[in-house]
Amino acid sequence: MVDHEPVTKAVVPAAGLGTRFLPATKATPKEMLPIVDKPAIQYVVEEAVGAGLNDVLLVTGRGKRPMEDHFDRAYELEEALRAKDDPERLAAVRESSELANVHYVRQGEPKGLGHAVHCARQHVGDEPFAVLLGDDLIDARDPLLKRMLEVRAEFGGSVVALMEVEPEQVSLYGCAAIEPTAEDDVVKVTNLVEKPVPGEAPSRWIIIGRYVCDPAVFDVLEKTPPGRGGEIQLTDALMTLAQRDRSQGGPVHGVLFRGRRYDTGNKLDYLRTVVQFAADRPDLAAEFLPWLREFVARQDAS
């Protein structure tokens, strides 16, 4: 069975305070921290657009105005670059404002990811939609979101992205209990546990920051009480939908992702991400990698 209701909208929750990166995030949104020379949030929007989702809603909060400015035109800067006859930088500046139809809604209170997603209800309406978390960057060479949209079209309901981790890491994430399907990279999700107690996780497959949600999730979120951490958890709502059939907004399937994922949620992983992206850049790698090797050798020798 093929679901003909296309997914056209992406929701990007971006209202977090970024406390792990203070003082840098005191006046700059965490999502605007650069990965080499482009803010992390732009990679996320580019991923949505690359999967065919040109309508992007950013769920923001106080102090997030720089994100809105980034995806807007900067006429004075463009004129200055045009006057300097600098077409390369002019194109780079204009790129973000021409990427997608970007919209904004405020999450008035920090009540969790589920609440942030529920804030998108008026914009999304009664349509399926994707959710992309800004802390996870997926390599553009690994079209995870496109695959998730294919799975949604085939099976209906909602789809989560799953990645296998070492047992000691499972308790840091939402974890899925899964059953195989006829497709190697697709499983049926039978249960979801947010940050399970070590040793009690149903599997080693964790939920990473990509979801395709059936619109039925909004009604479920409205009735979902605060869970772990006193926040409304999206995983709790998806757990409810996992018990339903297609006529009621279920089920939930998972795509087993074995590609390249970059975490920017803490300082150490952020630094790793910057180094990896720099090493993959043709315009930087030739000089950066020899310097990096020398630096590491000096550290090892000291």
Molecular structure report:
It holds the Pfam family NTP_transferase. It catalyses: alpha-D-glucose 1-phosphate + UTP + H(+) = UDP-alpha-D-glucose + diphosphate. This is UTP--glucose-1-phosphate uridylyltransferase. One of its GO terms (molecular function) is nucleotidyltransferase activity. Its EC number is 2.7.7.9. By secondary structure, this protein is of the alpha/beta class. The protein has one domain (9-265): Spore Coat Polysaccharide Biosynthesis Protein SpsA, Chain A. It is 36% helix and 23% strand. It has helices at residues 40-50, 65-70, 75-83, 87-98, 113-118, 121-124, 144-155, 216-223, 234-242, 267-279, 282-301, and strands at residues 9-13, 34-35, 38-39, 55-60, 101-106, 129-132, 136-138, 158-164, 174-180, 186-194, 205-213, 252-256, 261-263. A 9-stranded mixed β-sheet has the order 5-4-1-6-11-8-12-10-9. The radius of gyration is 20 Å and the shape is globular. The mean pLDDT is 92.
Oligomer: single chain
Strand content: 15-25%
What is the arithmetic mean of pLDDT? Answer: 92
What is the CATH architecture term? Alpha-Beta Complex
- Distance between the first and last residues' Cα: 63 Å
Number of helices: 11
Instruction: Specify Rg, calculated over alpha carbons.
Output: 20 Å
Low-confidence segments, ≥5 residues, pLDDT <50? none
CATH topology: Spore Coat Polysaccharide Biosynthesis Protein SpsA, Chain A
Q: Judging from the principal axes of the Cα atoms, what is the shape?
A: globular
Keywords: Nucleotidyltransferase, Transferase
InterPro entries: GalU_uridylyltTrfase_bac/arc, NTP_transferase_dom, Nucleotide-diphossugar_trans
Organism: Actinoallomurus oryzae
Catalytic activity: alpha-D-glucose 1-phosphate + UTP + H(+) = UDP-alpha-D-glucose + diphosphate
